[in-house]
Amino acid sequence: MRIAIVDESPARAAVIREGLEGTGLAELLVLSERAGLVARLEAFAPDVVLMDLANPQRDELEELFAVSRALARPVAMFVDQSDETAMESAIDAGVSAYVVDGLKAERIRPIVELAIKRFNAFARLKTELDEARNALAERKAVDAAKALLMKKRGLDEATAYAQLRKAAMDSGRRISEVADALLTADKLMGGL
To answer: Which keywords are on file for this protein (predicted)?
Structure first.
């Protein structure tokens, strides 16, 4: 497992490193400068990012957003003090673990494992949500195409659906693609 540690403090980064050494868990990269952070992280391609921001400021949180979006990997964030606004911003940025005053070597491994599990659970939920949204959009297109055929050709619903299905089978496309094409053609023709 490749783990990137982002911390401007060598002493604090050493605590994280100590918590990971001897576990056989990781190939580590410690980044102490923020310049070009996203590019360096992309080049290393970590499985997990551990960020110690002490008391995160707005710029650091925006940087966290950029890291989270660019990498799509679990991010665990360590801070010294609890701040509701910072915590909400971190969660919005996709942080998998937000740890307040928890930078102790013996806690690092469980936190890494938690961040990975939460990230994977969230990714599964996001995939399911995307699939549900796509299915709903396809269903709406098919329903609209059926309604168009029923109106334009005076068909009942079952016959309109059967025609869409036959057109899909004949063209080797999904029924939702045929429905989208029909709706687009009707729109281009001005609903004639």
So the answer is: Phosphoprotein
